[in-house]
Each structure stands twice: as C-alpha cells, then as structure tokens.
Design a protein that fits this description.
The complex is a heterodimer of chains A (about 300) and B (about 400). With about 300 residues, chain A is of the alpha/beta class. Chain A has a single domain, classed as Rossmann fold, CATH 3.40.50. Chain A has 12 helices and 8 strands. An 8-stranded mixed sheet of chain A has the order 2-1-3-4-6-5-7-8, with helices on both faces. Classes of the chains: A alpha/beta (about 300), B alpha/beta (about 400).
Chain lengths: ~300, ~400
C-alpha cells in the first residue's frame, strides 16, 4: 500500500505506522493526510509513495476533508454511481491534531462521519524542525521550548488527546504503539469496522526530534509502553458508559504491577531529556515526570476498573 | 434548444440561490451560516429536511472546514457546493487557493459583505476582492434573477474540461440577498438536464490515465494535493492561468446556451446604452442597476450616458471591455472596495490596464463608493457621470481617485 523507498528519515516512526495501518485494511482504502512529515515525504512530485488513492488538503483540516470525502461517497452510492463506500483513513501528526486541527477534528467527530483518524504522535512539529506542540511532554526539549539556564524544556503537561476524543462519545478510541504491531493492526481493523468515527492514537518515535539512534525507534516505543508513559488501551461506549480496557503489555502491567519500569528508563535514552541528567541530575524534574506518569496510569486503571 | 416554459416565483436573492441549488441537487453541500448568506443555508436545510434533495448536507463547524469538506467531496468525484460572506470568505482564504490549484470545480455563492473592523453586515466588495487572485472564477450578479441563473450556469463553467476551476457567484448582501423579486424559474428536469452529471476529466496518474478523482475501488489510485518544488510548481500555476483564459470563452458559450432555454442571455459583461455613449459608468453588482436608471435620466437631460457592468471579474474580459468602450469619451470606474495604499481601487487598476499602451483611450476616473452598505442613489451616479465628463473636458492627470458619499 505504501511503496518502498519513502523519503522519511531512517528510523521514522511515521512511515512504519502508515505501513502497519494500511496492512490492516481489508477493503479499498482512501487516505487523507494532514500537512506534515509523512505527507511531504510521501508526495514529492513527480513521485508518490501511495499505492492507494490519497489526498492532502492543508494542515488543520484533515478531518474536514475526510468529512467531505465520506459525504461524497455516501451521496454517490445513494445515486448508484459507485458500488461501495471505501474505508477512509486519516493520517495526521500531533500538530495537525492536538493544535491547529483540533476544531476540525472535534466537529467531524460530533457529526459522526465514518472514518478512522490515526494520530501519529511524534510529540512536536517535526516537519518544521522540532517545535513544541500540545502533544510535547513535560520537560522535553524542543527548539521553541529549549532547555535553558532557567527554563528546562516544556513546562506544561501533554494534552490528554485520546481521552478528550473519547469524551466525544464516538464508537471507538484506542492507543497503539509500533512496538506492538499485532495490537495496532487489530485496533485499526476494529476502528474501520465500527460505524462512525474511530480514533487511534499511536506513539511515533522520531530519531531526529527525540535525539536517539535511528536503530532504536521500536525500542523507544516499547519503553514508552513498558514505563506506562504511553499505555495501550481501547475504549467504546456502552449504555452511556465509557468502557475502557487496557491491552497488550499495559494489561499485563495492570495485572502484575512489578513489570512497570521507572520512567527514567525511557527518558535516559533520548537526547530531548538529556538536560535532566547532564551536566547534573535534575531529580525534582525527573520525579515530576514520574508523578505525571503515575497519575495518568492511575486514572486509566480506575477507568478500566482495575484500580 | 427550444425555449422552455418558466414559472414566476417571488423570492429573495438568497432564496433564489437555494432554489437553484435544490434544482441542481449537488452531491454534497457543506456550509456554515453567516449574515447575509444564512438564508441560503436555512432554505437548503428545509429542502433536505423535507426529503426534496438527495444531497448530503454537512452542517459544518466553520467556513474553513466548509470549503475543506468541499475540496474532499469534489476530489472524491462529487459535486460540491458552499456559500459564505465576508469574514467567512476571509477564513476560507487558505483553502481558496488549494481548491483552485487542485482544479476542483466547486461552486460557491458569496453574498458580498464588508469586512471587519468595525464589524458590519452590509454590502461592499472587499470580501470578494480579497479572493481576487485566488484562482477562482468570479461572476458578479446584478439582481435575484441573475443570481438564480448564474447559480445554475456556474456548474457547467466550472466543470468544462478546458476550465476545471471553482466558481464564485457573487451577489450583493441585503441589496440582492434580502430583496424580494419576481423570478422566472426553470422546471427541475430542465435544470437537471442542463447541468447533467459531473463529467470527470481524465488525467495521467502514476498508474496510467485515470479519471480525476479518489477512486473508491482503489484500482485507479491518484495522489492529490502533492508536494511540488521549484522544478514543477511553476508549470501548475501556468496551467491555471491558461484555464482562466479558456473560461472566457466557456462563460459566453454557457451563457448563450442558457439564453436559448430561458431568453435570458448573460456574457462576460452587460452593456447598457453604450453604442453612442460619451460617458460610461463601469462597475460590479447591484448598484449598476441604479447606474442604468441614472443613465436614462441623463439621456433625458441630453447627456449620452451608458453603463458597462462587469459580470466576469475573474477572468477579466480585457478585449471585450476595450471593444465595448470604443468611442466613449470618459469612463467613471466605480469601486465598492479599497486597495489600501494602492494606486486606485481594484477595478480601476484592471480598467487602466485595459487601455494601457494604446494611443487612443478614454479619460478615466475612479470613484470609491458604498463601503459597509453606504447607499448610492441615481443622483449620486448622475453627479459622478457629470464629474467624469467635466474632467474629460478640463483634462486630468494620472488616475484620479475620488470618494462618493463619504463624510470628508
């Protein structure tokens, strides 16, 4: 579905995620991309990486564009001009989802268009050269929240985007990691099967922006899960109630809490957190990140009925 | 084509547009309310609620998203319609260029309204002028009847294989949108037959020649909205310009064909008593109706006045305008918008270009009028024409820009 030779950086999480998502599809798929790394790297004329019909409109309007695509196919099918409405998959980064594209996403979810929105979250504006977004985690370095003498990276916490989306009460919301491809593919299929909007939030390691060796991308994603920095779960609504379930390694950690690694294991291998460890260890900041992780994890356990 | 029996219905401009769009029955309408366009969205919602159209109506959360959804819908091979005004058009600005550059034949009605600040809901052409260079065809209507007629013709123009560009149908806020007029309407089936189904052009994709759409079967994939660098971008722009030039002919052709059906012929311009005119008033939109009354009164007073209303502002019919004004001594160019700090109003800049480099040409003066809905009367137009005549006799230097009806 995605040609080999995509012009993303080596170790890019986004192209890996796109490949896995398309692998999961069983019906014809039409892809809508927001402006971002994946869009630019896959569509440099006169070449294209896409074996499936693909459209890019602008940065903040992937969900609105997908709304139009979906409405068009529904209308054409009603008139008998097309036989079947294909699956529609949006691929957008954190900037296009948490920030500039949030209104368009929220509107499309409220209207209930039938598409799967995949957020590949590399936690900053990587396409423009690593600037902070609403998805950047606390104390991470970016070029617009640098680690300076006074300020040590981003001071604010990451926006809980998947839970915010879940509160739109759409049929299916899940998180996934490229380190757990089977879990990811199953969730894509579930998202495509439900009637109405589905949302998949995928952690997307970025060697350039997170400052780690490109060979470690999958390992970094795995540690994000194992430390509960990025837990895996899925959620649906039943009888006006949110039914949230942990999946894969996160479910195992919930059952066997000793398996949960300290967040430091995740932070220490990434240059974007290097200022927390060098030239001297910033213990209170590391503790704050651990406290954030623990609080989010506890909240999920409660929502999953496993607290 | 034979003339068709038509019905007369009393409708406001906005209602006339909604009625035309009901008859066209596009696949997707994605729209957001804004005064003075709201009635279009409301009436169309009634048609949807009453099951009179099969259109997928997307009551969307902003104008930016409205046009974005139209881009998606048109790319999927459907007919897509939206309507807006003023701030809404300003919010769409980014996507205007994308829609035209992706060569998507979307139709959008603009109910012309002034831009904030101060916030104002009444007519001027600042909103449409902001979209002047966005690659959209811009057709300005004088009255409700023309708004109805143009909202039907627009599809044929946009979807013509030589054009493949989006079309903006502009009508004046309140003056046309909220004014009740007796309108002749075609039977539904005649409109349906006139617009037909959207023909899809074929393009060379990466897997051979395919219809220009997001193929729902996935068998004929295209990548739409791709990334082009300095090696290819310029060629895209050149092609858009050529499509604009081609549209000049298509607008006339479609106008003729529609005229044969209805008896109402529209072209690139509307000429009123220009044949022997010594002074011509040139402008856009509803106030040109007032200018025509002024021309009649001036003629009663022995002044040979005429009116040239530009219907197709983009593409601009340079040759047609030059030909129509042949022999006219002096021209009053009416601008209902400002280009702050520019050499003149936007229409005046185009009009000056029409005669640039020619040995012979009329005296031209520019009058800015009607901003934020400020009224203009026949007396105002008469004074303008007389001022232009006086200036021609006395001689003018450069391009004088004057203001009509504003407190000094």
């Amino acid at each position: 579905m995605l040609h080999e030779g995509v012009r993303t950086c080596s170790g890019c999480g986004a192209s890996l995620i796109a490949k896995l998502v398309l692998k999961a599809a069983r019906k014809p798929v039409v892809v809508v991309s927001a402006t971002g790394c994946l869009e630019v790297a896959t569509s440099i004329l006169p070449y294209t990486s896409w074996k499936v019909p693909w459209i890019h409109n602008a940065f903040e309007n992937a969900a609105a564009t997908a709304s139009g695509v979906e409405a068009a196919y529904k209308a054409l099918a009603k008139k008998g001009l097309i036989k079947e409405v294909p699956d529609i998959v949006v691929l957008a980064g954190d900037g296009g989802t948490y920030d500039i594209g949030f209104q368009s996403l929220s509107g499309a979810l409220e209207r209930g268009h039938d598409f799967l929105y995949v957020l590949y979250d590399n936690e900053a504006y990587m396409n423009t050269g690593i600037q902070r977004s609403g998805g950047t985690p606390r104390y991470a370095w970016t070029t617009t929240c640098p680690a300076g003498e006074v300020l040590k990276g981003k001071l604010e916490a990451k926006k809980p985007i998947a839970l915010i989306v879940a509160e739109h009460r759409i049929p299916y919301v899940a998180t996934a990691s490229p380190s757990e491809p089977h879990d990811l593919i199953r969730k894509v299929r579930r998202g495509l099967e439900v009637e109405g909007p589905a949302f998949l939030h995928v952690i997307c390691p970025c060697p350039r922006g997170w400052r780690f060796d490109p060979s470690l991308s999958v390992e970094v994603a795995r540690l994000a899960v194992k430390t509960c920095f990025f837990p895996l779960w899925e959620c649906r609504w039943e009888d006006d109630d949110m039914v949230l379930e942990l999946t894969g390694p996160s479910k195992l950690i919930a059952e066997v809490p000793e398996l949960k690694l300290p967040v430091e294991a995740y932070l220490a291998i990434q240059g974007r957190f290097a200022h927390l460890f060098r030239p001297k260890r910033m213990e209170p900041l590391i503790r704050q990140i651990q406290a954030d992780v623990d609080a989010n994890w506890k909240l999920l356990l409660r929502r999953a009925g496993m607290a | 084509m034979a003339r068709v029996e038509q019905r007369r219905i009393g409708m406001m401009g906005d209602e006339a547009v909604a009625y035309a769009i009901k008859q066209v029955e596009p696949d997707v309408v994605a729209a957001y309310p804004i005064t003075p366009q709201t009635i279009i969205v409301e009436r169309f919602s009634d048609y949807v609620a009453d099951g009179l159209v099969r259109t997928e109506f997307v009551a969307i959360e902003s104008e930016h998203s409205a046009l974005s959804a139209c881009v998606g819908a048109a790319a999927a091979g459907a007919r897509a319609f939206t309507a807006t005004a003023s701030q809404g058009l300003a919010l769409m600005w980014e996507i205007l260029y994308i829609a035209s550059s992706m060569r998507l034949p979307i139709v959008m009605v603009i109910v012309n309204r002034a831009l904030s600040a101060p916030i104002n809901i009444h007519c001027d052409h600042s909103d449409a002028m902001g979209a002047r260079d966005s690659g959209w065809i811009q057709l300005f209507c004088e009255n409700c009847q023309e708004a109805y007629d143009t909202a039907i013709q627009a599809w044929r123009i946009a979807e013509h294989p030589d054009v493949q560009l989006p079309v903006m149908v502009c009508l004046d806020g309140f003056v046309v949108s909220h004014t009740l007029e007796d309108i002749e309407v075609l039977p539904d089936e005649v409109v349906k037959e006139f617009v037909g189904e959207r023909p899809l052009v074929r393009v060379m994709g990466h897997e051979g020649e395919v219809p220009y759409r997001l193929d729902p079967t996935g068998r004929e994939p295209l990548s739409m909205g791709t990334f082009a660098m300095y090696d290819l971008y310029f060629e895209y722009k050149r092609q858009q310009e050529e499509a604009m030039r081609a549209a000049l002919k298509v607008i006339e052709e479609v106008g003729r064909e529609y005229g044969e059906l209805t008896g109402r012929y529209y072209g690139l311009i509307d000429q009123y008593k220009l044949e022997d005119a010594e002074v011509a008033i040139v402008g856009l939109g509803s106030s040109m109706g007032t200018a025509k009354d002024a021309a009649d009164e001036l003629r009663d007073e022995g002044i040979r006045a005429g009116v040239l209303r530009i219907r197709s502002f983009r593409p601009f019919p340079t040759e047609t305008v030059r030909e129509a004004l042949k022999g006219v001594k002096t021209v009053a160019v009416m601008d209902r918008a400002l280009s702050f700090g520019g050499p003149a109003g936007p229409l005046m800049m185009d009009m000056a270009t029409v005669f640039y480099g020619l040995k012979e040409g009329p005296t031209m003066l520019n009058y800015i009028y009607g901003l934020g809905g400020r009224d203009i009367s026949t007396d105002d137009f008469k004074a303008v024409a007389q001022d232009a005549l006086r200036a021609a006799e006395e001689g003018v230097e450069g391009l004088p820009v004057k203001f009509v009806g504003v407190r000094e």
